[in-house]
Amino acid sequence: MKDAYINGKIIDGTKEMQVKEEYAILVEQGKIKDVVLQEEADLTGYNVVNLKGNYIMPGLINMHVHLAGNGKPQKKQRDNAKLVNFLMSNPLTRAIAHNMVSGFAEMELLSGVTTIRTVGGIRDFDTRVRDEINCGKKRGPRILAGNEGISVPHGHMAGSVAIAAETIDDALLQVSKAKEQNVDLIKLMITGGVLDAKERGVPGELKMAPEMVKAVCDKAHELGFKVAAHVESSDGVRVALENGVDSIEHGAKLDDHMIKLFKENHAFLCTTLSPALPYALFDRSITNASEVEQFNGKVVFDGIIECAKQALENDIPIVLGNDVGCPWITQYDFWRELYYFHKYVGVSNAYAIYCATLQAARMAGIDDETGSIEVGKSADMIVMEENPLDDLLALRHIESVIMRGHRIDHPTNKINEQVKTELDKFL
């Protein structure tokens, strides 16, 4: 496996990224051996891949994924706990569910996402699919797997992609179980969400006691795990950071105390605009959302934007995730999150790409392995015709995906036309 990518326009994923031309990327055994001027490159023994002026950049890193969801719009709220119980009820349905999760992982890869971080899934499916991909049995991205999250009775996603811990001992038992499953991180559901709330203004209502948050974080850190937390209110952000959480997923308006905690804890923010946007901005005749859900969706959407802007102003690192699996959010549309980050938070295209490549890799602790086109790193790259530094819509049309050196030309996914039509109105 020796490939030389020539005649491409390189965007390397570093913070100061600019287009570099007349360089060759030499790949051996799945890793980048060199990035060298083409006229000086010795291509003897290499399979030469002529990019013909196309752009090549690091594969995207989606830091907030639920592999159990397809993002299909719903006419009414689904009982996710009941559905998961059915899927786990017999060997046949379990096999179907496992194949579904595997297929969704492959969708991520075919859309240009070469690394995902799962933050709530069905039982141990995420780690199983991760291991199947790593040993070559399945095709998919690099997976940092969280398996089931930890919630509380009647808490966010309890009974579906998170267990409902009634006591601190229950929560700690789940941490131990996660370790046995060889997870890569622990996920907490600290507040409610848009679809949990029954009244206006309470989508981020605190559900998990601070004492439970602290006990889980202490145990997880002792075992070497980082802790990610679903948080959709300022109160939730404060409780999470005061008790040791390493990443805030979603976010809400910050005060000086929270900003100080972010920095003291070396915590980061995972911005997720995609799932709140339909509830906040679509007409309710399209989303089938109630007036309360639309109101709360707008509260969360505005809170995430405000949190991201404050993080930028205070040098708090940001990564991106699209909370795939929520209604209207598919396994192949992560590029939209970069576009929304640019449009609503006001960052440059380059900075959006940086947050979804090298910065994400750094926050995930894998920047020595992936996240940029640099010597020694895994050859995780994507190729497109247009320049995403000029227009992030270029990421919608991927010509090739290279994962650990293996190239997939002209990757395709089946597109939900309703989702595409409605979401495209906000581009």
Task: Give the SSE map.
Layout: E1 2-6, E2 9-10, E3 23-28, E4 31-37, E5 47-50, E6 55-58, E7 60-65, H1 80-87, H2 91-110, E8 113-118, H3 125-134, E9 142-144, E10 149-151, E11 162-164, H4 168-180, E12 185-189, H5 210-222, E13 226-231, H6 234-242, E14 247-250, H7 256-265, E15 268-271, H8 276-281, H9 284-287, H10 291-313, E16 318-320, H11 335-345, H12 349-355, H13 358-364, E17 381-384, E18 400-403, E19 406-409, H14 417-423
Parallel strand pairs: 1-5, 2-6, 7-8, 8-9, 10-11, 12-13, 13-14, 14-15, 15-16
Antiparallel strand pairs: 1-3, 3-4, 6-17, 17-18, 18-19
Helix pairs in contact: 4-5, 6-7, 11-12
Overall description:
Residues 55-402 form the Amidohydrolase-related domain. The mean pLDDT is 95. Helix 4 (168-180) packs parallel to helix 5 (210-222) and helix 6 packs parallel to helix 7. The chain is 35% helix and 19% strand. The chain folds into 2 domains: 2-58 and 373-426, Urease, subunit C, domain 1 (Roll), CATH 2.30.40; 60-364, Alpha-Beta Barrel (TIM Barrel). It is an alpha/beta fold. The strands form 5 sheets. It has a 5-stranded mixed sheet with strand order 2-6-17-18-19, with no helix packed on it. A 5-stranded parallel sheet has the order 12-13-14-15-16. A 4-stranded mixed sheet has the order 4-3-1-5, with no helix packed on it. Strand 18 (400-403) and strand 19 (406-409) form a beta hairpin. The longest helix is centred in the C-terminal third of the chain and has 23 residues, at 291-313.
Keyword list:
14 helices; 5-stranded mixed sheet; alpha/beta; TIM Barrel; globular; Urease, subunit C, domain 1; 427 residues; 5-stranded parallel sheet; 35% helix
